[in-house]
Amino acid sequence: MTLEMRPDCERCGTDLPAEAPGAFICSFECTFCAECADDLDDMCPNCGGELTDRPTRAKKHHAAHPPSTQRRYKA
Fold first, then answer.
1. What's the pTM value of the predicted model, to 2 decimals?
2. Residues 6+ apart with CB under 8 A from 72
3. 17: which residues sit within 8 A by CB, 6+ positions away?
């Protein structure tokens, strides 16, 4: 099973490419940028879980294990 690798911050909409560092996730894969995770004191506002660094996914694996394209930010 692979991570969903959501493409954006749920709080501000910042793009978070799967191959780039700077994304934070909880155990349910709620996804936030570094600035929002810091503002949230590394606690997920959805479930109350800890936000931790999301690992990156090398581009060579995107064909076999594509990152999600479904954006979660709601303006």
1. 0.91
2. 6, 8, 10, 30, 31
3. 7, 67
SS3 (DSSP) at 34: helix
Report the candidate in 71, 25, 21 with the shortest Cα–Cα distance to residue 49.
Answer: 25
Tokens 């930010």 locate to 73
CB 67, CB 57: distance < 8 Å: yes
Where do we find the tokens 């949230």? 40
- Return phi, psi of residue 8, to 5°: -150, 165
Q: What is the pLDDT of residue 74?
A: 85
Which residues, 6 or more positions from 54, have their beta carbon under 8 angstroms from its beta carbon? 3, 5, 16, 23, 24, 25, 31
